[in-house]
Automatic annotation (TrEMBL):
This is Blue copper protein. Residues 1-27 form the signal peptide. SUPFAM superfamilies: Cupredoxins. The keyword Translocase does not apply. CDD domains: Phytocyanin. PANTHER family: BLUE COPPER PROTEIN, PHYTOCYANIN DOMAIN-CONTAINING PROTEIN. It comes from Momordica charantia. Pfam families: Cu_bind_like. Keywords: Disulfide bond, Glycoprotein, Signal. Gene3D superfamilies: Cupredoxins - blue copper proteins.
Amino acid sequence: MAMPNKKVWLHVFFMIIAGFALRSCTATTYIVGDSSGWDISTDLDTWSQGKRFFVGDLLVFQYSSSESLNEVTRENFDSCNTAAVLKAYSTGNTTVTLSEPGQRLFVSGNRLYYPIGLRPR
C-alpha cells in the first residue's frame, strides 16, 4: 500500500491550520452597553438581548475611572456581595476575553448601584 506523498500531507496540514485561523478571526468584540458604556443609565438587559457570546469573544467595559468593575461568582452576584470578587478592574477601559465556556458575571464595585440595575444578567 503506497503512502500519500508529502505534498498531500502538507496540504492537509495547511487546511487544518487555516481552519484554526478562521475561527480565531471570527471572534467578536462587544462594547458592553454600546455607546452608553458600562454606566448606571445603560439598560444592560436590553443591550444583551439577542447576543450570543462564544469562546474567544471580547467584552469591552468602558466606565468612569472613578468606578470599578468586578467579576463575581453566582452566589456573590445574587447576594450583591462586592467584597469577595474573582477579579477587580478599575482602569475605566477593561477588555475581558471569554477564554472558556460558561457564565461570567460582572458587577459594579459600588454596591449602591445594585438596586437600580448595574448588573447585567
